[in-house]
């Protein structure tokens, strides 16, 4: 119990420091991280000590890069003593940033490559552990469908990592862009895929014990379906994003009927809307032919409608329209849901601003879909924006060139 309290105290100090850092108050952020560091040392929490040292080093890199490296050296000694590759990976990432601040690009690249190798080690270790857990689940419960789904997902995750790593080796002159792609990818894997995957495994463990009555087993199966849907939705978006980032393919522009794109998305998402008793209105008007990549437009429309369902209250209403406006086609997706706070609207389409959000029934989102939608629409010479008031609903707009 004492250890738990000490760890919680350290986390609260670290969270306060992170809040000050987001407010650009570096001095207070450093002060709170140093308090967290002292707390970790006092209560013999070496992992948390190493993390505090690393966070202080990151904040110091613009003020005193030499001192920043000293902090990282201390953190590295702890990580080596603990034999923690994940800690070493974070430390090498921070070291790369410090070297870059010093314009020492050779050492920056070397540190980044070491960071990538450590991430591979962590990934492989986690993969082996996951495979061992899968074998245990298979022995306890012969649920082949879920087992295949998780195994396939792991293979796909490994392919995403392999594609990313191969591309990274070719981007020595684009260190900043490489950092952005890496941070986004592993943030989603670490926070938004690991959670649903862990919940699936826990539910399977419970099923394997054969201790549940029919009602309880049905409840667990419902949980498995929800978590599997969340896992699959995040994975599909992640794969679309990774493909766009790593392949850099040009859109295959063709004439597309906007109402047909809307209807295709509705066909896929209708069950999701019915589950929340949400009415969707999409009156069929005159065809609105726009110039766009059909797959990319389908993804964007599907993402906007899915978000509208996610953030609408049960029994709500969604209105979708497509019309001609000057030389452009305008698609609008309106919901009467929870709305978006004004301070969050400016960050919706910003790179590096991914934050987990939750729908009206706890559905989790990453923001990656909107960021990818912005990339796709921009690549198709269009615009995407929103109009929202907190508590009064949201309307997303897509404007694309009309086909002449």
UniProtKB/TrEMBL annotation:
The name this protein carries in UniProt is histidine kinase
Pfam families on file? HATPase_c (PF02518)
Any single GO molecular-function term of the entry would be: phosphorelay sensor kinase activity
Q: Source organism lineage?
A: Bacteria, Pseudomonadati, Bacteroidota, Sphingobacteriia, Sphingobacteriales
Q: What class of enzyme is it?
A: transferase
Q: Could you tell me which residue ranges the Histidine kinase domain spans? A: 188-404
Q: Which Gene3D superfamilies match?
A: 1.10.287.130, Histidine kinase-like ATPase, C-terminal domain (3.30.565.10), Tetratricopeptide repeat domain (1.25.40.10)
Q: Name the source's superkingdom.
A: Bacteria
Query: What is catalyzed by this enzyme?
Result: ATP + protein L-histidine = ADP + protein N-phospho-L-histidine
Q: Which keywords describe this protein according to UniProt?
A: Kinase, Membrane, Phosphoprotein, Transferase, Transmembrane, Transmembrane helix
- The EC code for this enzyme is 2.7.13.3
Q: Record's SUPFAM superfamilies? A: ATPase domain of HSP90 chaperone/DNA topoisomerase II/histidine kinase (SSF55874), Homodimeric domain of signal transducing histidine kinase (SSF47384), TPR-like (SSF48452)
- Spell out the InterPro entries in the cross-references: HATPase_C_sf, HATPase_dom, His_kinase_dom, HisK_dim/P_sf, Sig_transdc_His_kin-like_C, TPR-like_helical_dom_sf
